[in-house]
Amino acid sequence: MNYISDILYWISTGLLVPDIVLLIFFFGRSLLLIGSFFGQYLSIRRTASLIGRELDGLTPQTVATLAERLPKKNPSLLVVYLNRLLEARDNAPLRQRLLADFEIEADRDLATSKTLSKMGPMLGLMGTLIPMGPALVGLSTGDIASMAYNMQVAFATTVVGLFAAAIGFITQQVKQRWYLKDLSNLEFVAELLNAQTATWRWSSPWR
Asked: Hey, is 142 helix, strand or coil?
């Protein structure tokens, strides 16, 4: 039994270094995520009001000219897919595929935030529990310096893991609201294009 316990102890102790390396990586990734999130926020602020005004007054008769009024050379995912929808105004199956592609792209952008929010607490907890064993051994043998060092590692990994998770959770919640609104706008334009196609068919003399 002692032999099995020793094996488990060696395994858990060996996981500490990879755990700390991953936590450092996720910490750096969370800092990069903050920067990209801020840039995305500024881009959305610049285009949201313009897109909102254009869509509020949009009808099946004017939807075909929407592309002319959209911002040019805008990297926003909404603007990109609005242009693609308008280019596919005569192809209903393609419009449905574009809506599905938008959801996939949005989910891909959320992947980093989801990973940080889920893996941060896991790695932080591992980094907390693994040094507790050596810390208790140091306490039992009177090695206060070893115990203090291991407790320091345990607290530091917890804080880093929670920080990365907090950044991931906050950005995930905000981005999900952005993409839900964008998807609603895309579906609205797709429905107007469907209505335009139906009107054209009923008014065509060759039907």
From this structure: coil
